[in-house]
Amino acid sequence: MYSAPPHWVEGLPQPGRCLVMGVVNVTPDSFSDGGRWFERPAAIEHGLALLAEGADVIDVGGESTRPGAERPSAEEEMSRTIPVVEALTAAGAVVTIDTMRPAVARAAVQAGAVAVNDVSGGLGDDEMLAAVAELETPYICMHWRGHSAHMQDQARYDDVVAEVAGQLAARIQASLAAGIAPGRLAIDPGLGFAKTGEHNWSLLRRLESLHTLGHPILVGASRKTFLGALLADESGDPRPALERDAASAALSVLAALCGAWCVRVHDVRRSIDAVRVASRWVKQEAP
Questions:
Q1: In sequence order, which residues have a C-beta less than 8 Å from that of residue 158 and are 6 or more positions away?
Q2: What single-letter DSSP state applies at residue 57?
Q3: Kind and range of the H or E element at 139?
Q4: Which of 33, 99, 186, 274 could make an S-S bridge to 104, C-beta 3.0–4.6 Å?
Q5: How confident is the model at residue 64 (pLDDT cuts 50, 70, 90)?
Q6: Is the pLDDT of residue 285 over 80?
């Protein structure tokens, strides 16, 4: 069991345990909530509720990355996210922007976001890495093989862990070469992105091997399809997304015990409890 404390990312909270990042999807077609928070007042209210539940970071995104999703325009993405970023930062939240577009990243940082969470790892737009370096913000670099509409066609690996690690290493080098400071860089194995359920489980089982890349690890497993398949009923129908939070929290505690720096989740309260349990589990002395 990995018992060392996680690495930290400069410019983001350092609570002495695995961070919990709450998700605010300002989209009409999110796999996890079906567009429940698409309207601006609802998105802001939801973000404030996650903050009240103890989220260390709120991740605001305006583009659905579920398999098969079509992309909104950059203008639409900004109209969805920027007012929400402004409202949540004004309320005291630490906000990250979930985007593949440098223009959205710049606008969000100007509005108060403190980091960029890019599911494409800089491959979605050639200007993203330079933009993040210029902004001097933390950068979360995810393993990615293509946009949502076709990404599952790329779910082919001989050794998923070795190939994801190798491709992340290449993106780390590209990020550093663009001028992103090493202490501001985190990585994400990209569960569910161009990966089958078995690929996801393999990455989770061997998560500790990714520490050799030398950067903090974010795990985003919350409510994903492979959990629905695991929890399928007797007829084989997957557990609905909104009923996967207990399983998501179980993965949060396991990820924390494997040294994850951050878990990205939809239900904050359960995962806050989970990572606190994990933190106490590895301590040698009572608090």
A1: none
A2: E
A3: strand 139-142
A4: 99
A5: confident
A6: no
Known catalytic residues are 224, 264
Of the candidates 141, 209, 206, 128, the residue with the CA atom closest to the CA atom of residue 170: 141
Question: What are 115's strand-pairing partners?
Answer: 96
Identify the burial level of 176 via C-beta atoms within 10 angstroms of its C-beta, where 0-12 means exposed, 13-18 middle and 19 or more buried. middle
Residue with tokens 């590895």: 282
The structure tokens 């710049």 sit at: 106
Nearest to 192 by CA among 144, 237, 254: 144
Dihedral sign (CA 265, 268, 269, 273): positive
pLDDT of residue 5: 46
Q: Which amino acid is at 25?
A: N
pLDDT digits (tens, 9 = 90+) for 217-268: 999 999 999 999 999 999 999 999 999 999 999 999 999 999 999 999 999 9
- Which ranges in the chain belong to alpha helices (H)? 40-52, 74-90, 102-111, 128-135, 160-178, 197-205, 225-230, 245-257, 268-282
